[in-house]
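Whiteboard transcription, Tuesday session. T.W. wrote the structure tokens on the left side:
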């Protein structure tokens, strides 16, 4: 056989993707070591790749979305998430980059709540409040890879069991995070949990998106749409007051696309002052529990577009206001205020202390789910 025929045979053996003939069955999942922590713990990562140039790397530390490569309108691929090049940095400079956050993403006022008449006390790690699960939340735990699969959809499921009483929360909680990537350029993330005792929880992903990728412009010029007619105003410590306020006529009205930077410095609105910009829970329009559109982010320069659909009642919109230039992330780049957009779907902050907010309660025998769908395109 000629060299040419050999080559053709090899391509045929690889299937239609190698010939660029279509995209069926093209998504792959590969598992590989991802270095180790200072204490010697080995970290692994699974990379999901589809036939359109998207790849998502998920590491076992924190079930973290460590990188997300997406092509721009010219087909140039770049990582659109902030984070670090190695696992230990995620522990040394924790800022929840890409992490799976729990047991309770966002804040619980004064680190206290009561459930069925019993009081619980959590560590206060954010001024007077508890933030993102406490001192050693799910972002700092090692998750186990439960399953990995390739096919029309490539996916990985990671699991973590949180002991009864861990970080002050009741009940043994068994949690899974499943990331799946398909040929429709959709990354789907689903958290599930069961508990041995009544408890409260709020699991989400804390990716910091910068759709400019390697250009690393800040996100002030990104266009954001939030399908939310109301948001939950906060006090000076970012705890909801309980009010559900209409966004109409405020810097929080993203019902039509707005540049992030246009109103972010508008201190006439006390909420902008408290948040140092945007750091607020928006109430997603439509019925919680059903998957519905929550947000769109567009970068007019690269053309990248990300649409987020959620099942959760709320979504925290945060513009990296606490990034202060002392963190050096991937490619030794300093991260500063406004370098990224976080969109964290979940129940509302401090729900355990607000009986009229959608419940954060989970009972034994029930299965908690939180589904987040990210769809990517370029224009
Ligand atoms: C969330 C919070 C922010 C901040 C970040 C992590 O988005 O709402 O206030 O704590 O997490 O730095």
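and on the right, the sequence the group agreed on:
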């Amino acid at each position: 056989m000629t060299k040419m025929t050999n080559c053709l045979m090899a391509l045929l053996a690889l299937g239609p993707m190698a010939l660029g003939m279509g995209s069926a069955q093209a998504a792959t999942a590969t598992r590989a070591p991802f270095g180790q922590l200072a204490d010697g713990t080995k970290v692994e990562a699974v990379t999901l790749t589809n036939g359109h140039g998207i790849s998502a790397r998920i590491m076992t530390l924190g079930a973290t979305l460590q990188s997300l490569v997406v092509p721009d309108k010219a087909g140039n691929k770049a990582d659109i998430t902030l984070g670090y090049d190695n696992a230990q940095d995620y522990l040394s400079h924790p800022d929840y980059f890409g992490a799976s956050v729990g047991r309770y993403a966002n804040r619980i006022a004064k680190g206290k709540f009561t459930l069925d008449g019993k009081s619980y006390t959590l560590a206060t790690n954010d001024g007077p409040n508890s933030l993102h699960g406490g001192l050693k939340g799910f972002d700092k735990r090692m998750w186990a890879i439960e399953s990995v699969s390739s096919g029309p959809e490539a996916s990985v499921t990671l699991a973590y069991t949180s002991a009864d009483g861990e970080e002050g929360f009741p009940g043994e909680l068994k949690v899974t995070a499943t990331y799946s990537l398909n040929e429709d350029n959709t990354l789907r993330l689903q958290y599930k949990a069961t508990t041995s005792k009544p408890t409260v929880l709020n699991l989400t992903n804390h990716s910091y998106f910068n759709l400019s990728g390697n250009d690393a412009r800040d996100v002030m010029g990104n266009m954001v749409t939030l399908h939310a007619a109301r948001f939950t105003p906060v006090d000076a410590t970012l705890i909801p007051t309980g009010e559900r306020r209409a966004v109409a006529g405020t810097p929080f009205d993203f019902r039509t696309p707005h540049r992030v930077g246009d109103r972010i410095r508008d201190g006439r609105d006390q909420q902008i002052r408290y948040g140092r910009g945007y750091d607020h829970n928006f109430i997603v329009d439509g019925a919680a529990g059903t998957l519905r559109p929550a947000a769109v982010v567009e970068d007019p320069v690269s053309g990248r577009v990300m649409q987020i659909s959620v099942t959760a009642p709320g979504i925290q919109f945060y513009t990296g206001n606490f990034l202060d230039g002392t963190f050096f992330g991937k490619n030794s780049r300093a991260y500063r205020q406004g370098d990224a957009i976080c969109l964290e779907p979940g129940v509302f902050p401090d729900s355990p202390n607000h009986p009229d907010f959608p419940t954060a309660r989970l009972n034994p025998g029930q299965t908690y789910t939180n589904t987040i769908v990210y769809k990517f395109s370029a224009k």
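Someone added at the bottom: The CA atoms of residues 35 and 88 lie 9 Å apart.
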